[in-house]
UniProtKB/TrEMBL annotation:
One Gene Ontology MF term: voltage-gated potassium channel activity
Native organism: Zoarces viviparus (Viviparous eelpout)
Name used for this protein in its record: BTB domain-containing protein
Pfam family, one: Ion_trans
GO BP terms in the entry: action potential; protein homooligomerization
Protein keywords: Cell membrane, Ion channel, Ion transport, Membrane, Potassium, Potassium channel, Potassium transport, Transmembrane, Transmembrane helix, Transport, Voltage-gated channel
Membrane-crossing residue ranges in chain numbering: 147-169, 189-207, 214-234, 292-310, 322-339, 351-372
Domain BTB span(s) in chain numbering: 15-124
Length: 391
């Protein structure tokens, strides 16, 4: 008797099917297979055409009722045991991912794992997913992780360059009606980059230990914001082709969504310890940033009022209103000094000098604490990256 024999010789011949898995042959009884109608072999009994049969097996012989499967004959012994007992066991020496792929092929669910193997299976699957997660998140984990990180960084750079080139007039194209259209070459680059970002995002979401924490992560939200406008733009373009008057503003919405592609620049933070440290610094410096905004707001309000009162009588001065005074005080206190507006009277110049000096002091006070925090986070991030690389 063959290993895993599940048949009885006294049964009629039409109650059996012959299964050939990688050269390993086995006769299997219909009644046994009907106990598990959702499995691949159980579904064979319900096929009404040759095409339906070939969707479930690699080849078959109608005269001999023999079905051929190009799969592992060693693993098929465990499949036979499953039809006997209703339970499947882990295969010693077989990768848990390969085991999962095999039972998925034969249509066997995880719930059919025997109790003795269930916990071990889920533990091994979790380890496999964690390895994939680390490989995607930590470029220093392995050579393949470095290759994926370099590929991701290259696509980000290509996307940014494409976005910049798209804004240049030399690369603009128009149709026969003089209506501006998308450059086909740049559009091709755009599609390839977005598809790469989409696959990368879905893959990282699939192997993330917690999907909820993944979606709430700042960098992951940036990734989502960088790819969603592309698909929403396609939907808006399709809607815009109609004659519906209510969609007359779709074109403006599309332009706004295309502008959101600038978020892809922030994807560089995933590959830069400095940018990650900057984000951590801003998250933990709300008090200092609040103080900076408060100091500047008080200074801008005060100096805009002073410059307005001393300059409003001068015909040559452009500081004739308070809003213009706010703009002048802002660029003066932050020491930007565009030079588009400036005081012309002696009193106005003295107030301008005082405004610049006060601006230097107000900006320097909280910025020192912010810089110290940035240095701390940067050194910590460098140590983390170095430790991961050594491991």
């Amino acid at each position: 008797m063959m290993y895993g024999q599940v048949l009885h010789p006294q049964c009629p011949a039409d109650c059996f099917i012959n299964v050939n898995v990688g050269g390993f042959k086995q006769r299997m009884e219909h009644d046994v297979l009907k106990r598990f109608p959702q499995t691949r072999l159980g579904r064979l009994l319900c096929c009404s055409s040759d095409a339906a049969v070939l969707e479930l097996c690699d080849d078959f012989s109608p005269s001999e009722m023999e079905y051929y499967f190009d799969r592992s004959p060693r693993f098929f012994c465990y499949i036979l045991n499953f039809y006997l007992t209703g339970k499947i066991h882990l295969v010693d020496g077989l990768c848990v991912v390969s085991f999962f792929q095999e039972i998925e092929y034969w249509g066997i669910k995880e719930r059919h794992l025997d109790f003795c193997c269930s916990n071990k299976f889920h533990e091994l699957m979790k380890r496999a997913e964690d390895k994939c997660w680390i490989r995607l998140e930590d470029p220093g984990y392995s050579t393949s992780a470095k290759v994926m990180a370099v590929a991701s960084l290259s696509v980000v750079i290509v996307s940014i360059v494409t976005m910049c080139v798209h804004s240049m007039p030399d690369y603009h194209q128009v149709d026969l009606n003089e209506k501006e259209i998308e450059n086909p070459v740049l559009t091709c680059f755009e599609i390839v980059c977005v598809l790469y970002f989409s696959v990368e995002f879905i893959l990282r979401l699939a192997v993330a230990p917690s999907a909820r924490k993944f979606l709430c992560g700042p960098l992951n939200m940036i990734d989502l914001l960088s790819i969603m406008p592309f698909y929403v733009t396609i939907a808006c373009d399709i809607m815009d082709k109609g004659e519906n008057p209510s969609l007359e503003n779709v074109g403006k919405v599309v332009q706004i969504l295309r502008l959101m592609r600038v978020f892809r620049i922030l994807k560089l933070a995933r590959h830069s310890a400095g940018l990650r440290s900057l984000g951590a610094t801003l998250r933990n410096s709300s008090s200092e940033v609040g103080q900076l905004v408060l100091f500047l707001s008080v200074g801008i309000s005060m100096f805009s009022a002073l410059i307005y009162f001393v300059e409003k009588e001068s015909q040559e001065s452009e500081l004739q209103t308070m809003p213009i005074g706010w703009w002048w005080a802002t660029i003066s206190m932050t020491t930007v000094g565009y030079g588009d507006t400036f005081p012309v009277t002696l009193a106005g110049k003295l107030i301008g000098t005082l405004c610049i000096l006060c601006g230097l002091l107000m900006v320097a006070l909280p910025v020192t604490n912010i810089f110290n925090k940035f240095s701390t986070f940067y050194e910590r991030q460098r140590h983390i990256d170095l430790r991961r690389s050594n491991n």
